[in-house]
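Thread: Newbie trying to understand structure tokens

Hi all, I'm a second-year student working on a class project, and my supervisor (Dr. K.) asked me to get a predicted structure for one chain before our next meeting. I've only ever worked with sequences, so writing a 3D structure as a token string is new to me. If someone could post the tokens and maybe explain what I'm looking at, I'd be very grateful. Here's the chain:
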Amino acid sequence: MPLKRRRNFLLTFILNLFLWLLWFYVVFNISPDQHFSFFIFHFSFDIPFSLILFFFTLTLSLTLTLAFIFSNTRKGFLTSLFIAGFLLLRLIKQAYPLNILLLIGIIVCLELYFSRKNKNP
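---
Reply by user tm_fold:
Sure, no problem. This is what the structure looks like when written as tokens:
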């Protein structure tokens, strides 16, 4: 009888708690007006650093939380990508029903692709 590998949830819980605390720190203490500017061949690019940090920490913390809830890392990651994508669409005022359906379709296609890829040897 094969032995099941026991997962250590304490380390995951501590990392998840740290990521949620980092996300709350980003939300409450970092100004949304902070920009990161750089130049490439006389072109100036302004990247909103706080938005990138917000979405990055939100996606990581949601991934760990939802992976624990679903007991599946892939489903947790795809669900967190959907939530982050929806929030990004809301941010740029493009959260129309068609765009949300397209986002759902992309997530479902990714789920089907990765679930079929794991079944075929």
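A couple of things are worth pointing out once you decode it. The chain has one domain: 10-26+45-119. The helical segments are 9-29, 49-70, 73-91, 97-119. Feel free to ask follow-ups in this thread.
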